[in-house]
Amino acid sequence: MKNYNKYSVEEFVQDSYFRKWVFDELSPNDTFWTNWLQSNPEKNAIIEEAKSLVIALKVKDLDQFTQQEISDGIRDILNDTQPKHINFQIISRNWLRIAASVTLILGAAWWFINRNPLNTISFDITISKEQKAIHFNNGTKSLVFELSDGSKITLEPKSELRYDSEFGKGKREVFLTGEAFFEVTKDMQKPFLIYTGKLVTKVVGTSFRIKAYEKDKDISVSVRTGKVTVYKQNSKSTNSQSLSTEIVLVPNQKAVFEKDQELLVKTLVDKPMPLNQTPQNIDLVFEETKVLEVFNRLETIYGVKISADSELFKKCSITADLQNETLYKKLDLICEIIQAKYEILDGEIMIYGKGCL
């Protein structure tokens, strides 16, 4: 067994098993690298450096070169720290030609990662074989940019977004590792697809957040505006139409995909927010107000369905100021007053209790 704990950036780049993981060529059941990173969090920085080099150079087969040639090429790239433009193209045929032609450019990326005051770097890479553009955020602050269709992406630290260099011309597809907030430009003819492992998020035009870090046990999709469809893809092929589950989300709803059990469930976001189109004059100060009316008012504000037995709760009234409370705090106070409880089930709020006399 290799002792990866002692590996350098150079050694990771040369390791064929590591490169296969970077290019997502391992079996879906092979979780070695995910588990290894969880057990060795202090190695995250060196792994990110090695991944960036492997992806940027599209290094898959190093057997045709001598050990010394490989070592010299990697060392040349890592040692050069002259800042240059961050947007570039690499068209590669062999390792030595790459090492000679992109030393200054990758050196610039390395320089920006370590010396930029914001500790943030984003650069696009176009690789001739697969025509993939890549955005990296190896820094500590959010990175905002636009795609060619006008969609706005906020890429969080330690995250990566990949897409075809022809994005938007025929289809709109991106591949996310990490976390990002999407504000997608509406195009009914070209749905926007985000691939995060086995989970696919499909939208036409809306805003939402996806959290899909490799080290996390689950993937989550939280909707801010519009409507989002989320489903699990049974095949690794992005063209597969075989769906195990499909969930439609509306504002303040969230889908959670549990990786181990491959279970996809619908719930609510951690902090539901009032809808943008909510009338500003809705009053949340109540005096002997029927609780069913209170629930209807909350539904209007948050766009979340609240189900309560109308016969059971028709005599219940509350007096309370809920103007500045969060939705969950509002529900806690209401349920305390009417001696009830609530549960979140399939993205809705269910109210249970004995009712009022």
Arithmetic mean pLDDT: 78
Q: What's the CATH first level of the largest domain?
A: Mainly Beta
Please give the CATH architecture of the largest domain: Sandwich
Tally of distinct domains: 3
Q: Determine the CATH topology of the largest domain.
A: Jelly Rolls
Q: Report the count of strand segments.
A: 20
Which descriptor suits the 3D outline?
Answer: elongated
Order of helical and strand elements: HHHHHEHEEEEEEEEEEEEEEEHEHEHEE
Which percent band covers the strand fraction? 25-35%
Structural class based on helices, strands and sheet pairing: alpha+beta
- Gap from first CA to last CA: 71 Å
Radius of gyration: 25 Å
The helix fraction, in percent, is 25-40%
Q: What can be said about the biggest beta sheet? A: 13 strands, mixed
| Count of DSSP H/I helices | 9
Low-pLDDT runs of 5+ residues are: 80-130, 235-243
Explain this structure.
The chain has 3 domains: 117 residues, no CATH class; 128 residues, Sandwich (Jelly Rolls); 69 residues, Phage tail protein beta-alpha-beta fold (3-Layer(bab) Sandwich). The chain is 27% helix and 31% strand. It has 9 helices and 20 strands. Strand 14 and strand 15 form a beta hairpin. Helix 5 runs parallel beside helix 6. The relative contact order is 0.06. About 17% of the residues have low confidence.
Annotate the secondary structure layout.
Blueprint: H1 9-14, H2 16-22, H3 32-39, H4 44-57, H5 67-79, E1 88-90, H6 95-115, E2 125-127, E3 132-137, E4 143-146, E5 152-155, E6 159-164, E7 172-183, E8 192-196, E9 199-203, E10 207-212, E11 218-225, E12 228-233, E13 243-249, E14 253-258, E15 263-268, E16 285-290, H7 291-302, E17 306-307, H8 310-313, E18 317-321, H9 327-338, E19 340-345, E20 348-353
Parallel strand pairs: 1-2, 7-8, 17-20
Antiparallel strand pairs: 3-6, 4-5, 5-7, 6-7, 7-10, 8-9, 9-12, 10-11, 11-14, 12-13, 14-15, 16-18, 19-20
Helix pairs in contact: 5-6
